[in-house]
Amino acid sequence: DLLRRISGIGQVQRNDLYSSVMQAYQSCAQGHAPSINDVFDVYSALGKNDSVVSVLTLLRDLMIFETDPENTTTFVDLFDRSTVLNLSGLSGAGQDIVDIVATMFLDNLYTDYMKTLPKEPFLEGPDGISRRKVDSFVLIDEAHHAMNRDFDVLMKLMLEGREFGMGVVLSSQFLSHF
Predict the structure, then answer these.
(1) What would the pLDDT profile of 95-128 be if each residue is shown by its tens digit?
(2) Is the pTM of this model over 0.70?
(3) Vertex 109, ends 115 and 40: CA angle to 5°?
(4) How far is 6 from 55, CA to CA, in rounded Å?
(5) Cβ contact 38:82 at 8 Å
(6) Helix, strand or coil for residue 21?
(7) What gap in Å lies between CA 147 and CA 44, rounded to an integer?
(8) Contact 106/115 with Cβ under 8 angstroms?
(9) 3-class SS of residue 88
């Protein structure tokens, strides 16, 4: 879905990518998820030279993601402290790659971290008004890039985040970006 929105891949490419991801999972060692390189290897074995190969090649060649599963951590462990995802070094790769990485990160934040948190109860203040406890925030700078792509995950984070104690702050240069 992410590549469909950003790179405009069609149904055949989407199905081939899905099959490649599933095959990469089957080929991985027990308890490990495939890397982008694993998915690239399976997809490129199809012999295609399309936009999916182009995006996967950039993700692989830019060494954005760790290839050794022993050097990775879970999102729960990652967010046990303040975490900054600085994508400014990717600007030379193009906005599409920056958006892909940011959205992958937000997707994992939503599914692998936020949705595993206990739902916080409402807290009633001395004024009798019920409020949600918010103890963590996601700050998205230059948010207009993500807003223009209509990413479902961003809307889900904004709509459901407070239920799990998470707030979302969107930042940009101009109010007209929103």
Answers:
(1) 778 888 888 888 888 888 888 888 888 888 899 9
(2) yes
(3) 125
(4) 10
(5) no
(6) helix
(7) 31
(8) no
(9) helix
